[in-house]
Amino acid sequence: MSEALFSQLAMLVLLTGLIVWMGIIVWDLAKKSQAGRFGTIALFTVLGAGVIGFIVKTVLVEVMQL
Fold first, then answer.
1. How many CA atoms lie within 13 A of 62 on its CB side?
2. pTM value?
3. Which of 11, 21, 35, 47 could serve as 30's disulfide partner, Cβ 3.0–4.6 Å?
4. Could you give the number of structural domains in the chain?
5. Is residue 13 in some structural domain?
């Protein structure tokens, strides 16, 4: 296994784990603050926008390299 392949796989696995961990943190924050349904949706929308932006950027870079 080459270093480039290992780096790509490690980033995919670890970044996915980080995104899941951030989701757990946001869920816990919503529960502890008693945000309710609307507040929880707002937290996930606003804080998840950064994750969505990162995913869109990654997809666009891959598409543009074709």
1. 7
2. 0.71
3. 35
4. 1
5. no
